[in-house]
């Protein structure tokens, strides 16, 4: 676990705390595709995620401008 202590334009300071208490974490994975053309990693494109107005959008190499 880490705790953010301070932030600035040039960086961020974190304090890392090692907990001895066991915790259970779950996660999910899914394939992402470009929101514009539908191409994905399996098509040979790299995908970039961008947050726009509190939503996440995915773009391929061609549409990442």
Can you offer a commentary on this structure?
A hairpin with a 2-residue loop joins strand 1 and strand 2 (11-16). Helix content is 0%, strand content 35%. It starts with a strand and ends in a 6-residue tail after the last strand. The chain has a domain at 30-65. It has strands spanning 2-8, 11-16, 48-52, 55-59. The mean pLDDT is 82. The chain is mostly beta strands and 65 residues long. The strands form two sheets. Strands 1-2 form a two-stranded antiparallel sheet.
Brief digest:
With 65 residues, the chain is mostly beta strands.
Beta-strand portion reads: 35-45%
The count of DSSP E runs of length 2 or more, i.e. the number of strands, is 4
- Name the helix and strand elements from N-terminus to C-terminus, one letter apiece: EEEE
Shape: extended
Q: How far apart are the first and last residues' alpha carbons, in Å?
A: 35 Å
Structural class computed from helices and strand pairing: mainly beta
How would you write the strand order of the largest sheet? 1-2
Largest sheet: 2 strands, antiparallel
* Uncertain segments: none
Report the radius of gyration as a whole number of Å.
17 Å
Number of helices: 0
Percentage of residues in helical conformation: under 10%
Mean pLDDT: 82
Chain oligomer state: single chain
């Amino acid at each position: 676990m880490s705790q953010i202590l301070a932030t600035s334009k040039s960086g961020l300071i974190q304090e890392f705390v090692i907990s001895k208490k066991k915790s259970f974490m779950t996660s999910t994975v899914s394939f992402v595709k470009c929101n514009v053309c539908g191409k994905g990693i399996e098509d040979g494109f790299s995908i970039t995620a961008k947050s726009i107005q509190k939503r996440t959008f995915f773009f391929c190499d061609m549409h990442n401008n």
